[in-house]
Amino acid sequence: MVDEKNHEEEIENEVIDKESEESNRENRQKEMVPKQDYEELEDRFKRILAEFENFKKRNGKERDGLYNSILSDVVEMILPVLDNLENAVKVETQDNEYKKGIELVLKQFQEVLASKGVEEIKAVGETFNPEFHEAVSSIQDENLGEKEIAQEYRKGYKIGSRVIRHSMVVVAN
Questions:
Q1: Element (H, E) at 169
Q2: Which H, E and C letters describe 143-165, residue by residue?
Q3: CATH class belonging to 35-116
Protein backbone atom coordinates (compact mmCIF):
# COMPACT_ATOMS: atom_id res chain seq x y z
CA MET A 1 0.00 0.00 0.00
CA VAL A 2 2.70 2.38 0.91
CA ASP A 3 4.56 1.59 -2.35
CA GLU A 4 1.39 2.10 -4.29
CA LYS A 5 0.82 5.46 -2.60
CA ASN A 6 4.40 6.57 -3.29
CA HIS A 7 4.06 5.48 -6.87
CA GLU A 8 0.86 7.50 -7.28
CA GLU A 9 2.56 10.56 -5.75
CA GLU A 10 5.48 10.18 -8.15
CA ILE A 11 3.12 10.03 -11.10
CA GLU A 12 1.25 13.10 -9.83
CA ASN A 13 4.55 14.97 -9.40
CA GLU A 14 5.61 14.04 -12.93
CA VAL A 15 2.31 15.31 -14.31
CA ILE A 16 2.65 18.54 -12.32
CA ASP A 17 6.27 18.96 -13.53
CA LYS A 18 5.21 18.45 -17.14
CA GLU A 19 2.37 20.95 -16.80
CA SER A 20 4.71 23.45 -15.13
CA GLU A 21 7.33 22.94 -17.87
CA GLU A 22 4.73 23.51 -20.59
CA SER A 23 3.47 26.62 -18.82
CA ASN A 24 7.05 27.98 -18.55
CA ARG A 25 7.66 27.26 -22.24
CA GLU A 26 4.49 29.14 -23.19
CA ASN A 27 5.49 32.10 -20.98
CA ARG A 28 8.97 32.23 -22.55
CA GLN A 29 7.45 32.25 -26.01
CA LYS A 30 5.19 35.13 -24.99
CA GLU A 31 8.18 37.00 -23.52
CA MET A 32 10.33 36.58 -26.62
CA VAL A 33 10.62 39.83 -28.56
CA PRO A 34 10.17 39.68 -32.31
CA LYS A 35 13.44 40.13 -34.22
CA GLN A 36 12.44 43.49 -35.68
CA ASP A 37 11.59 44.88 -32.23
CA TYR A 38 14.86 43.53 -30.87
CA GLU A 39 16.85 45.22 -33.66
CA GLU A 40 15.05 48.51 -33.05
CA LEU A 41 15.80 48.32 -29.33
CA GLU A 42 19.43 47.43 -30.00
CA ASP A 43 19.79 50.35 -32.43
CA ARG A 44 18.21 52.72 -29.91
CA PHE A 45 20.54 51.45 -27.18
CA LYS A 46 23.60 52.01 -29.37
CA ARG A 47 22.50 55.54 -30.26
CA ILE A 48 21.89 56.46 -26.64
CA LEU A 49 25.26 55.00 -25.65
CA ALA A 50 27.00 57.03 -28.40
CA GLU A 51 25.19 60.20 -27.30
CA PHE A 52 26.29 59.61 -23.72
CA GLU A 53 29.93 59.13 -24.77
CA ASN A 54 29.78 62.37 -26.79
CA PHE A 55 28.26 64.14 -23.79
CA LYS A 56 31.10 62.95 -21.54
CA LYS A 57 33.74 64.16 -24.03
CA ARG A 58 32.03 67.51 -24.54
CA ASN A 59 31.59 67.98 -20.79
CA GLY A 60 35.28 67.18 -20.20
CA LYS A 61 36.39 69.73 -22.80
CA GLU A 62 34.11 72.40 -21.31
CA ARG A 63 35.43 71.67 -17.82
CA ASP A 64 39.06 71.93 -19.00
CA GLY A 65 38.31 75.16 -20.86
CA LEU A 66 36.64 76.67 -17.81
CA TYR A 67 39.55 75.64 -15.59
CA ASN A 68 42.09 77.21 -17.98
CA SER A 69 40.00 80.37 -18.26
CA ILE A 70 39.80 80.79 -14.48
CA LEU A 71 43.49 79.99 -14.07
CA SER A 72 44.38 82.56 -16.76
CA ASP A 73 42.31 85.23 -15.01
CA VAL A 74 43.98 84.58 -11.66
CA VAL A 75 47.48 84.47 -13.14
CA GLU A 76 46.84 87.70 -15.07
CA MET A 77 46.01 89.47 -11.81
CA ILE A 78 49.20 88.15 -10.16
CA LEU A 79 51.63 88.98 -13.00
CA PRO A 80 52.26 92.58 -11.83
CA VAL A 81 53.52 91.13 -8.53
CA LEU A 82 55.92 88.91 -10.49
CA ASP A 83 57.08 91.95 -12.48
CA ASN A 84 57.78 93.84 -9.25
CA LEU A 85 59.76 90.93 -7.81
CA GLU A 86 61.86 90.77 -10.99
CA ASN A 87 62.48 94.52 -10.76
CA ALA A 88 63.42 94.19 -7.08
CA VAL A 89 66.04 91.56 -7.96
CA LYS A 90 67.60 93.92 -10.53
CA VAL A 91 68.09 96.72 -8.00
CA GLU A 92 71.58 97.00 -6.51
CA THR A 93 71.73 96.71 -2.74
CA GLN A 94 74.37 96.37 -0.05
CA ASP A 95 72.33 93.78 1.86
CA ASN A 96 73.06 90.47 0.09
CA GLU A 97 70.80 88.46 2.42
CA TYR A 98 67.86 90.68 1.53
CA LYS A 99 68.63 90.22 -2.17
CA LYS A 100 68.86 86.42 -1.74
CA GLY A 101 65.47 86.46 0.01
CA ILE A 102 63.86 88.34 -2.87
CA GLU A 103 65.50 85.95 -5.37
CA LEU A 104 64.16 82.93 -3.46
CA VAL A 105 60.63 84.37 -3.41
CA LEU A 106 60.87 85.09 -7.14
CA LYS A 107 62.12 81.58 -7.88
CA GLN A 108 59.35 80.01 -5.79
CA PHE A 109 56.77 82.18 -7.54
CA GLN A 110 58.07 81.11 -10.97
CA GLU A 111 58.04 77.43 -9.95
CA VAL A 112 54.41 77.67 -8.82
CA LEU A 113 53.40 79.26 -12.13
CA ALA A 114 55.37 76.62 -14.08
CA SER A 115 53.62 73.83 -12.14
CA LYS A 116 50.29 75.23 -13.38
CA GLY A 117 51.50 75.26 -17.00
CA VAL A 118 52.29 78.98 -17.22
CA GLU A 119 55.18 79.67 -19.60
CA GLU A 120 57.11 82.81 -20.50
CA ILE A 121 56.75 83.90 -24.11
CA LYS A 122 60.19 84.10 -25.69
CA ALA A 123 60.88 87.50 -27.15
CA VAL A 124 64.41 88.90 -27.54
CA GLY A 125 66.02 87.45 -30.66
CA GLU A 126 62.75 85.97 -31.91
CA THR A 127 60.79 87.10 -34.96
CA PHE A 128 57.88 89.40 -34.12
CA ASN A 129 54.59 87.50 -33.93
CA PRO A 130 51.45 89.55 -33.22
CA GLU A 131 49.82 86.54 -31.58
CA PHE A 132 52.43 86.66 -28.78
CA HIS A 133 54.04 90.10 -28.96
CA GLU A 134 52.85 93.69 -28.74
CA ALA A 135 55.15 96.16 -30.51
CA VAL A 136 55.49 99.43 -28.61
CA SER A 137 58.32 100.85 -30.73
CA SER A 138 60.68 100.07 -33.57
CA ILE A 139 64.35 100.76 -34.19
CA GLN A 140 66.79 100.57 -37.08
CA ASP A 141 69.67 98.18 -36.41
CA GLU A 142 71.81 96.68 -39.15
CA ASN A 143 72.94 93.84 -36.84
CA LEU A 144 69.39 92.53 -36.43
CA GLY A 145 67.13 90.89 -38.99
CA GLU A 146 63.81 92.18 -40.25
CA LYS A 147 61.04 92.06 -37.61
CA GLU A 148 63.49 90.70 -35.05
CA ILE A 149 62.77 91.66 -31.45
CA ALA A 150 65.55 93.84 -30.03
CA GLN A 151 64.22 94.54 -26.52
CA GLU A 152 61.50 93.40 -24.17
CA TYR A 153 59.81 95.96 -21.91
CA ARG A 154 57.41 93.56 -20.27
CA LYS A 155 57.40 89.76 -20.30
CA GLY A 156 54.49 87.90 -21.82
CA TYR A 157 52.99 84.67 -20.52
CA LYS A 158 50.82 81.88 -21.87
CA ILE A 159 49.14 78.67 -20.76
CA GLY A 160 49.39 76.12 -23.55
CA SER A 161 48.47 78.06 -26.68
CA ARG A 162 46.35 80.64 -24.81
CA VAL A 163 48.11 83.98 -24.27
CA ILE A 164 47.57 85.45 -20.81
CA ARG A 165 49.57 88.61 -21.47
CA HIS A 166 51.42 89.70 -24.64
CA SER A 167 55.10 90.64 -24.45
CA MET A 168 55.73 94.38 -24.90
CA VAL A 169 58.65 94.57 -27.31
CA VAL A 170 60.80 96.80 -29.47
CA VAL A 171 61.04 95.51 -33.05
CA ALA A 172 64.04 96.10 -35.30
CA ASN A 173 63.92 97.32 -38.92
A1: strand 167-172
A2: CCCCCEEEEEEECEEEECCEEEE
A3: alpha beta
Q: What CATH code is assigned to 118-173?
A: 2.30.22.10
pTM for the whole structure: 0.64
Give the model's pLDDT for residue 23: 67
> Cα 112–118–121 angle (5° rounding)?
130
Residue spans of the domains in the chain: they are 35-116, 118-173
Query: Per-residue pLDDT averaged across 91-116, rounded?
Result: 93
Q: CA–CA separation, 15 vs 36, rounded Å?
A: 37
Distance CA 106, CA 21 (A): 83
The DSSP secondary structure of 114-148, one letter per residue, reads HHTTEEEEP-TTSBP-TTTEEEEEEE--TTS-TTB
Distance CA 77, CA 107 (A): 18
